[in-house]
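HUMAN: Forgive my ignorance: could you write out one protein's sequence and C-alpha cells?

ASSISTANT:
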Amino acid sequence: MIALGAAFAGTTALAAPATLKIAFVDPLSGGGASTGEAGLKTFQYMAEQNNAKNPDLKLEVTGYDNKLNPQESLVQIQKAIDSGARVVVQGNGSSVAAAIIDFVSKYNDRNPGKEILYLNYAAVDPALTNAKCNYWHFRFDANSDIKMAALTNFIKGKPEVKKVYLINQDYSFGQAVRSAARAMLKEKRPDIQIVGDEVAPLQKVNDFSPYIAKVKASGADSIITGNWGQDMSLLLKAAADAGLQANFYTYYGGGAGAPTAIKQTNLADKIFQIAEGYANIPYPPGHEFEKAFRARVGQELIYPRVVNLMNILVKAAGQAKSTDPKAIAKAMEGIHNDTLYGQDSFMRPDDHQLFQTMYISSFGPIDTAKNFDSENTGWGWKGIGEIVAKDTVVPTTCKMDRPS
C-alpha cells in the first residue's frame, strides 16, 4: 500500500515522538451527514495508516458535528481547541469555510504561540484563496473556477451540447459555479443557449422533481451542477423518475449516494465528473490503496484529496521537525508531493492553493472483474480526460499577510 509511504520519503523525523490532534469539523447529521461521515472515515483511516508506520508522529482525528452551520462550526472548533486540537480540517460548505478562516485568523492573532492551522479539503469558492486568503488556511481541492475551466474545455469539443440548464445550491459556492459557467461558456461556446439557471436552498430540498420538470420543458440537452450530498443524489433520482434524457456535468457526481442514483437514471456514460481522482485510474499503487481502503473502511474512496492532504501534512511536519502549526505552515508553503496517483502536486505560496492533476470521468457499465465499481452498482468511473497540475493554474488576487 502507498498510504502515507510517499510522504515519508526524503523527510526528516521529528525530534521526538509527538502527537498532533486534528479536529474534523463537518456535518455528521442532517442532509450532509453521508458526505461528512465519508470524509471523517477517510481522515481516520489515514491517521491509522500513519500511526502504524510512523513512530515519530501520532495523529488523532476526532469528529465534530457542525450541522453545516457556520456559527455551530465555531462552537465546535472552540471545543476542539479546548481538547488540544491544533489542526482543523473542514470541507463541506464555503460559507462555513469563510467563517472558519475569520475565526482562525482572529484566534491566532490573540493567542501567539498557540496557533491553529485550517486545512480545507473541499470548500472551493475561489474567494477563499483570493479576497479572503489567509496565511493559516491551505486548500487541497481545486477551486470551482479551475474545475469549471476543465469542464467547459471538454464541453467546447462536444458540438451536440446546444442547450444548457444550470442547477446549483443557493450559497457562495453555488453562486460561484453558476457565474463561472455563464462566463466560460460565453467565451468558449457562444452558440450554446443557457435555457435555465436555478438555485435551490442548501441541503433542504427533499424533492427535485419541480426543477427537473423545468429542465424537461426547457429542452435542455445538458445540466451543469455543483450540487453535492443529498442535493446531488436527489437531483439524479428526480431525473430518473421523470425519464430525463440529458447529460450531467458535475463536480460531485461521485459523492456518497450519487452513483446509486446515477444507475437508477439508466443514463450510461452521460454523467460526467471533474475531480482529482477516481478509482480506475491506471496506476497500480492507487489500485492497491483502493482495495485496502475498501476492505478496511467498507466504502469506496471518494476523497483522494484527503489522502493527498494527510500525506502533505505528515511531510511538512517531518520537514519542520515539529507539530507546531506555525512551523508546519512554513514548511507547507511551496511544498511538492506526489498524489495518490503518482502525479506531482504543489502548494502555491501566494495563496495556499494546491494544484494537482485533474481528471474528467464518466459513469457507466464496467467489467467488474478488471475495474472498481461504485456502491455495488456494477457501474464505475471511466477516464475521458486529464489535465496536469501545471495546466490547472489560474491567477490569484490574494494579498497575504504573513506572521513575523
